[in-house]
Amino acid sequence: MVTRMTQLKVAFAQIDCLVGDIPGNVDKVIEAAETAKTKYNADLVIFPELTLTGYPPEDLLLRASLQVRVEKALERILYTVKDIALVIGFPWREQGKLFNCAAFIDGGEIKAKYRKKCLPNYQVFDEKRYFEPGSDTVVLPWRGFNLGVSICEDVWEEEPIAATAAAGADFIVNINASPYDIAKLQQRRTLVQSRAVTNSVPILYVNMIGGQDELIFDGGSFAVNRHGRVCFSAPQFEEGIFLLELNDVIHGEGQETAEPAPTMAVEASIYKALVTGVRDYVNKNRFKSVVIGLSGGIDSAVTLAVAVDAIGADRVRAVMMPFRYTSQMSLEDAEAEAKALGVQYEVVPIEPIYDQFMGALNPLFAGLDRDTTEENIQARIRGVILMGISNKTGALVLTTGNKSEMAVGYATLYGDMAGGYDVLKDVFKTMVFRLAWYRNTLSPVIPERVITRPPSAELAPDQKDEDSLPPYEILDEILSLYVEHDVSADGIVAKGFDKETVYRVVRLVDINEYKRRQAPIGARITMRGFGRDRRYPITSGWKLGE
Amino acid sequence: MVTRMTQLKVAFAQIDCLVGDIPGNVDKVIEAAETAKTKYNADLVIFPELTLTGYPPEDLLLRASLQVRVEKALERILYTVKDIALVIGFPWREQGKLFNCAAFIDGGEIKAKYRKKCLPNYQVFDEKRYFEPGSDTVVLPWRGFNLGVSICEDVWEEEPIAATAAAGADFIVNINASPYDIAKLQQRRTLVQSRAVTNSVPILYVNMIGGQDELIFDGGSFAVNRHGRVCFSAPQFEEGIFLLELNDVIHGEGQETAEPAPTMAVEASIYKALVTGVRDYVNKNRFKSVVIGLSGGIDSAVTLAVAVDAIGADRVRAVMMPFRYTSQMSLEDAEAEAKALGVQYEVVPIEPIYDQFMGALNPLFAGLDRDTTEENIQARIRGVILMGISNKTGALVLTTGNKSEMAVGYATLYGDMAGGYDVLKDVFKTMVFRLAWYRNTLSPVIPERVITRPPSAELAPDQKDEDSLPPYEILDEILSLYVEHDVSADGIVAKGFDKETVYRVVRLVDINEYKRRQAPIGARITMRGFGRDRRYPITSGWKLGE
């Protein structure tokens, strides 16, 4: 028996499940199980949380036929996969209650069903909208070991792992749909290490991969032995089947076994997350191509590079739409970027359209001063042109607004905000610069002066962003404190920032909720993105200050 | 004692609390308490759920200074209001947990604090994102009676009222922030009647009033005696203090006491809800005025009427933006509506702007057929013009898309969908017709042929909505079944609808999630609006059918 035990292999199926596509996800499960068996000779293949529906299925979980669909899916898996054991996740309704379940399947039979105990209902999560919490621990014998099962959030609280270990588990499979953010990989590892040590039990952590609307699942599956040693890790941002020798985990010591894959530099990690987001949004929604308005500025330059890296230059089209305030430098740089990346490039001047708009509006604007209205009209003309190309060709418009702009409303609704997916939505401007430098280390595609020149929207003569906003180094720090860390305006001032600046910035964040509510979605890469993560009322009498 | 008891008066403070404005809401509480005492000689004044923060405060509940702000607010109330008892609602943090609380205050002291037991986390509600459930029943002696307290959802489940009655309550004050929908008033009454009878206890149900983003609180507070008799009811859609003789409720029989206010016809009720929504969105967000694109069609006609009824003709501006496909009839009718309602009216032809756009785009469109792209450009030019007026004058753009259009995506993003608030967002087209007839019974403002002509977007020659959509009678029935009642496509077909039509409609609903995600908010008037109520992924592989 001992000999047999030492040879057990576990395949981590770090796969990309398409939300709602239950039959398609079953195909993926069956394919992964066959690969795990035939190619790797694995004994057990473990899949991410809610494998069959993808994550998060949102209100699809409320559709009446969900249970029938899941039952059919399970039947097909039980009938097809007989020579390898599986742990898979799915929603399951019984006695009128819906549970977030994991099943341990062996020999074509469901041996045990585990119901997730801890339901996250914070940040981007709404699991209490759908699920009831489970209460039973699952530990069952398998090939001479006691296998325990838990699901995602269960490992973030104490009870489930403690109870499973107490019930005699030799190792615990924890299946996850844990979305990426900058700090998440380290957070997961530290947490799971601590649980493993506290309960002296190895934990196998398998995570989903792929972009789903604003969420990016980064994979990065890993295993920790009872001493808290990460003794196996799968790559981030890479779909695949990754093999673990169970013996290494169960019998491993604190110091032995292979080194885990090194964690990436933050710029590389974010860049890969953005690429994943674009690629999956475009492909899963079956867009053949994308179109981007190039301005010669850094946001559209980085957006273009991400798009090309995500889906290839032949599926990307760039349009420069100059106006009287567009500098020669911008025209040159936009063209240089497009050429360097090898995308289709067109120039559509907007001057004649602008003149017609102003001719129509001047009688209505009589006696009123020139203000940002005229700037917004330029941005909106560009939006109409890009959307025209989108409607005519089926290309998705990618927008280029960064997190700093989305925060303070430095963007035009129906103008530069017009499009289906905002690549940099959760990336502060200071990080956009770092991403540009990083991308150029791979191959020089962004002209250096795009990175070094002072940012400008070029919507008015000699305009600079810093005419209306604090320097981005300051702005982004204030925004990070307020938006991502919930520090109040007075709390930020107490950290040494200028009071007037802080109050102005915080007020801009507060009053621009209406813009963000109509903004395109974009990849979440921080612990607090604008989207499901941050739910503020538009109508609000909250006074800033303490 | 009996003599004293028979004279007790309870004031229902059916007030409009502005979300987040804690000091302002305290002012309202103090004012209402003073009015209740001095004008009505009331002994107790009861306020809606989360009186101090308004409802729903959403992520404002997560701000660090919330507790300090609430404590200050309570101090001010305790210090100021001494000669009348109160029941008010507020969030309260203790031992690291946030509760949705109601306090009974008497003589400037908090006599008891009740923590909401049942936290709704479905439909538009997210209370489990913020609150922990309470577990204690509150019944306390007051002027010879035992007064029980409960909060909103507590009355929708069995335990809280049963426990409070079992603890000896002579009557229960249930404080609410219950949002309006067409069927809600009757539902609330039937439910509370049943709870009162089952537990043989009178229930005083006080509700909030006013619009908060997409939610409309309709008031309609009422009281039910132990026999299930509605023996008091405050009007819907009217802010105010309404007085109840407690004796009538506590000693009332099944048949006695005054008739409750009659419930309104559905058209009148919806119309009032829409007016409330517009009025409060505009005023609470401090817009001085609104601007509406008038097309000569029924949606913009009804929108205009609602806007004028909400904030007055002097704050409403209408703009007709004709194109070559705009009929003479539309021009005449738009002008007639504007005149009948007395609003500022302008005509801005879009032909020259359109020609410039097409001139710019034609080289890019070479060899491609004419399609809806050209129609969308017309709609988007109108959007740019309205937004220009909005930016220049500070007027809010009201959009006019109805629920049928929002469902199937029969609307142009950044075109007719450009604006801050969509008045008819949750109103099916067939109901828009009924609202038009209803509004004309008050005073004839919508030309009859606007109601009787076949609906057309007038974006192409001789276009009719029914060229691309099923007749609205059929469309709306299918949409109601699919969107509001979660019936599957096959389930709808089984009810006798044409399969091809059903599949086409359901598919349109599914694939247009991306449009709705960028749509302006609008008043929710049904049990399933597009908004907080219906949370579907954009990226989805769900197959329609069963």
UniProtKB/TrEMBL annotation, chains A, B:
A GO CC term assigned to this protein in UniProt: cytoplasm
Q: Which sites bind L-glutamine?
A: Y122, S178, K184
One Pfam family cited in the UniProt record for this chain = CN_hydrolase
Q: What is its EC number?
A: 6.3.5.1
Source taxon at top rank:
Bacteria
Pathway linked to the protein: Cofactor biosynthesis; NAD(+) biosynthesis; NAD(+) from deamido-NAD(+) (L-Gln route): step 1/1
Record's keyword terms, sorted? ATP-binding, Ligase, NAD, Nucleotide-binding
Residues reported in the UniProt entry to bind ATP: G293, L294, S295, G296, G297, I298, D299, S300, T400
Question: ATP-binding as a keyword?
Answer: yes
> For this chain's UniProt record, which GO biological process terms are given?
NAD+ biosynthetic process
Domain CN hydrolase: start-end pairs: 8-248
User: Has UniProt tagged this entry with the keyword Cell inner membrane?
Assistant: no
Q: What class of enzyme is it?
A: ligase
Q: Which PANTHER family match?
A: GLUTAMINE-DEPENDENT NAD(+) SYNTHETASE (PTHR23090:SF9), NH 3 /GLUTAMINE-DEPENDENT NAD + SYNTHETASE (PTHR23090)
What's the stated role of this polypeptide?
Catalyzes the ATP-dependent amidation of deamido-NAD to form NAD. Uses L-glutamine as a nitrogen source.
State the name under which the record lists this protein. Answer: Glutamine-dependent NAD(+) synthetase
